[in-house]
Amino acid sequence: MPVGLFRVCLLVITAIVNHPFFFPKENGTVPENTEEIIQKMKEREESLRLEQLRLEQEIADQEATQTALEKAAVVVEESKEDKVRWDMWTALSMVIFLLIELWRQDFQEGNWQDIGGEEDDMAVLGKAFKGVAFPDKAVLASFYEKRILGTTGDMARMREMVEGFADDLLEALRSVCNRDADMEVEDCMGVGSMYENWRVRKPFVCDLIVPFAPPEPYCFRCQTWCSGDSFPPDEQGYGTIKVCRADEDATGCICDKTKLGEDMLCLLHSQVSSTRPSSDMEDLLCFKNTQYLDANQVMKWFQIAVTKAWNRISHKYEFDLSFSLLDSPGALKIKFKSGKSIAFNLTPVVQYENSDVYFISHFPRSSLAADIPSSTHWFLTFAVYERRFIQLVSKTLPANACHVSCLQILSFLHGKQCSLTGPSGLTNYHLKTVLLHLLQARPSQDWAPEKLEARLQDMLKFLEKCLHEKKLYHFFIGNGKVPAELGFPIIFQRAEPLNLFRPFVLRRDIYRKMVDTFHEMLRNMSALINEYTVHIPLAHTNGIRKEPL
């Protein structure tokens, strides 16, 4: 047993001693395996190093890309901030500019009627008045007495004759019209310079307006630029007239707003009372395929009706009646056998609601409506209120006040200048508007007859100021100081002021012509007045010095 254990132990020891890992032989393969392992490890190390370099390159590229993106984002953000900042400053600048412009307009609109408080407000703006010798009081008085009063004495007799004949002509017109189909014509009214007693230029022409209404059951529904409807800026002062049935939109019936069904019938609106077809609307003088009144159709109808009426009553008169101007459909001329003639205008108009504001089809001898947008746009005239305002103010002025004299002299000078240099955009209506503003601005005592020279200077200075600013506001539109006694519609008082010089802002040639004509009139004023003034004795003028304006 011990011998067996000894053998086993000896065998184990021999095996351990002879194991190749502990005591390798010199010609063994262990060193070769080690070199291969080392070589593989070097190759692995090299591949790992290359992979590391590749990864580092990719990381660097990613970092560069990320940096570029971050920089781009920063640039975009900065540009957005700059844009926002620029937009903010632009918007702020625009707001400031608009506020300044609104303040300037409000200031001017608030003071356009307060120009007569002090003499400094009437200071000359440009060089137009420098070196201009203004006629003295004696020359002006002589000129007005001999030239103005001497030629206007027959106006009252002429007005009476024209009004009487117009009434007879309109009565005959009603008799020849079909009361069931034609327009209903009312009595005429006299407006303008002949009825405001400041007409000075011959030939004297009476302006009469004739309101008319549609036959039953139709009515006119008027829309103006200030009634809430959208009108572009170039259509301010205009309106449209729609021909409707009198019961249309007036009963509040829901049959036009709700589908009642085929088996239901509206007891208020049957098929018989439906709107007339297109051809019948044209018979009502509407524009083709619309319900809007056409000014051209109205004038054609009116000319035909006047011709028929004259044929009916011509046997009663010993003169001839004809249309005098092709471009003014309502211009009529009475020709006597002696060769003399009398001209007058008979113009159809449509009343605005229950006021004395009227839609007028055209303006005789005027450029106010030269650029009417279309024949369905009608210009509004306030001529009746203008006449009433002058009459109302005249009652508060001193006896023989000089307000009408100022307008007559200025109108005469302007007419004479236009006959020399040709017509301009400046009209007698602009001159009358200047007078209306001054009548409201100055106290009554400033219009005494001995202050004719000073008030005439005021009118010229105010007109020069308006030409310089290219702004002459309509007297009634936007004027909250209109006397309540006139009963003027509040809708027009609350409207934005209407600049009568607005058409000349974009038409520089007409504006330049208007300014040049005004300057020429100033330079020629003394010569024109002296030409028509009876010689004043030297003793009468001694001590009177001509002062520049």
From TrEMBL:
Family: Belongs to the ITPRIP family.
Function of the protein: Enhances Ca(2+)-mediated inhibition of inositol 1,4,5-triphosphate receptor (ITPR) Ca(2+) release.
Coiled coil ranges: 38-65
Domain of life: Eukaryota
Major subcellular location class: membrane
Stated name of the protein: Inositol 1,4,5-trisphosphate receptor-interacting protein
Start and end residues of each Mab-21-like HhH/H2TH-like domain: 404-477
InterPro entries in the cross-refs: ITPRIP-like, Mab-21_HhH/H2TH-like, MAB21L/cGLR
Membrane topology value: Single-pass type I membrane protein
SMART domains: Mab-21
Localization annotation: Cell membrane; Nucleus outer membrane
Any one GO MF annotation of this record: protein kinase inhibitor activity
Residues of the signal peptide: 1-20
Organism: Edolisoma coerulescens
Keywords, alphabetical: Cell membrane, Coiled coil, Glycoprotein, Membrane, Nucleus, Signal, Transmembrane, Transmembrane helix
One Pfam family, short name: Mab-21_C
GO cellular component, one term: nuclear outer membrane
